[in-house]
Specification:
It is a single chain. This protein has two domains: 182 residues, FAD/NAD(P)-binding domain, CATH 3.50.50.60; 106 residues, FAD/NAD(P)-binding domain (3-Layer(bba) Sandwich). The strands form five sheets. Strands 1, 2, 3, 4, 5, 6 and 19 form a seven-stranded mixed beta sheet that branches. Strands 8-15-9-10-11 form a five-stranded parallel beta sheet. Helices cover 24% and strands 30% of the residues. A hairpin with a 4-residue loop joins β5 and β6. The longest helix has 20 residues. By secondary structure, it is of the alpha/beta class. The chain contains seven helices and 19 strands. The structure holds flavin-adenine dinucleotide and magnesium ion. Flavin-adenine dinucleotide binds next to α1, β2 and α7.
């Protein structure tokens, strides 16, 4: 069957795009591998009307509402290939099934490359975070540690001082120059140069010299790249952002491959659930209009 649109990625952005198309009675297939980026967090903050709600619950409610539309096909699985076929697209899944669509929407999200520190990955989303807007408030203006991964951390550090008493943990990532040190001092930031041995307890940083620095929470900037190579395989141009790599789109969320759209974390910065939902809705409307006009 030829679908009007194939959506790869059925999280916030993909579902928001699908919803617009389903409400226009279009035939949509959503292929979703079920690995939302925020699956490590038990509360999602900052999304109007859903502040503090379990992110799985937000996704589950959205999916239930989508499933009520008869023109939706939902496929739990992984898309392994996407290519142009005639005027449309052909998508192959891991179990070797082939699906055809007039339009393609890539809403596959990004992956987070975490600093390889002992004890960090286990605390990702519970006491180690990337975004102070999402998780800063709950630290109750306590002690915040920001783990450096590159000189770009300075922006993150200055921003974090809005939410608590900040220590910049250099961990050998770079050496701040005199200007940077003066700026950090003016913002009341403590600099800790010692290399980190690991994270323990709630968010305690053990330094290699044996000292343990306790924090209410830790932030670290992760480098983000599209979670699948599908866009590249298809020939979509990518672009560099302050956070990593994303798929290039125009204002209608169309990629550089005509008929292929992209939305959510994989196609915009900064990243949040509400921005992914808004971006997905935008993509859905523009995909629909491209089918009409
Ligand atoms: P995602 O939610 O990442 O979903 C992408 C989907 O595509 C996944 O279901 C994945 O399995 C699927 N997929 C990928 N490749 C394929 C494929 N080849 N085939 C099929 N399916 C595929 N934001 C907030 O607003 N508030 C918060 O409190 C918050 N907390 C966060 C905490 C953590 C620890 C992290 C990492 C992020 C947090 N975020 C938060 C950011 C938020 O998670 C993202 O902005 C949001 O999930 C982006 O939605 P998305 O739909 O673009 O991508
Ligand atoms: Mg999505």
């Amino acid at each position: 069957m030829l679908h009007d649109a194939i959506v790869i990625g059925g999280s916030y952005a993909g579902m928001a795009a699908a919803l617009q198309l389903l409400r226009a009675r279009r035939k949509v297939i959503v292929v979703d591998a079920g690995a939302r980026r925020n699956r490590f967090a038990s509360a999602s903050h900052g999304f109007l009307g859903q502040d503090g709600v379990d992110p799985a619950e937000i996704a589950r409610t959205a999916r239930e509402q989508l499933m009520a539309y008869p023109t939706l096909t939902w496929l739990e699985g992984t898309a392994t290939d996407a290519k142009r076929q005639g005027d449309g697209f052909a998508v192959t899944t891991a179990n070797s099934e082939l699906y055809r669509g007039k339009r393609l929407i890539l809403a596959t999200g990004v992956s987070d490359a975490l600093p390889p520190l002992d004890g960090l990955a286990e605390r990702w989303g519970s006491s180690v975070f990337h975004c102070p807007y999402c998780h800063g408030y709950e630290l109750n203006e306590g002690r915040i540690g920001v783990i450096a991964t590159s000189p770009d951390v300075l922006h993150h550090v200055v921003l974090s001082t809005e939410w608590g008493d900040v220590t910049l943990l250099l961990n050998g990532a770079f050496e701040p120059d005199a200007d940077a040190r003066a700026e950090l001092a003016a913002r009341g930031v403590t600099i800790e140069a010692g290399p980190i041995a690991g994270i323990e307890g709630h968010a305690d940083v053990r330094l290699q010299d044996g000292r343990v620095l306790p924090f209410a929470g830790l932030f670290t900037a992760t480098r983000n790249v599209p979670s699948t190579p599908l866009a590249e395989t298809l020939g979509c141009e990518l672009e560099t952002t302050p956070f990593g790599i994303q798929i290039r789109t125009d204002e209608s969320k169309q990629t550089t491959v005509r008929g292929a759209f992209a939305c959510g974390d994989v196609a915009r910065v900064p990243h949040s659930v509400s921005l992914a939902v808004g971006d997905g809705a935008m993509a859905g409307v523009h995909v629909h209009r491209s089918l009409v006009f």
